[in-house]
Amino acid sequence: MTIQEIQAEIVDEFSMFDDWMQRYEYMIELGKSLPLINEKYKTDDNIIKGCQSKVWVHAEMKDDKIEFTADSDAIITKGIIAILIRAFSGQHPKDIIDAGTGFIDEIGLKEHLSPTRANGLVSMIKQLKMYAIAYQTQLN
Questions:
Q1: Mean pLDDT, to the nearest integer, of 89-102?
Q2: Of 6, 27, 48, 51, which one is the catalytic site residue?
């Protein structure tokens, strides 16, 4: 599936819920299904700066696609990174770089986060794209 198809699927899933409590519960469930980062990658180098809670992300290339794994010490934040990883993991670096993040606004995520969590969300997206830029540079 393309990033756009995955993002559309996420928007559809979130539109099934009537209120934000249900959406938070769903995000928590998504966080539980997150492909967990290997403990050896839970280092300061892999912590996303700008997040209130700790979020570790590891990226590696497999068959010209980036595979992301992550973890967080906060359940909502774990759900947020799970959504992003679902959208971007297993994709080519260039596709990640070029991908929009409008689906975040479509599901209403940013407006329902505290300012510090919203900043953390932006930092997570930025970090995933930075990994993609680094890997794309290696491919060229």
A1: 97
A2: 51
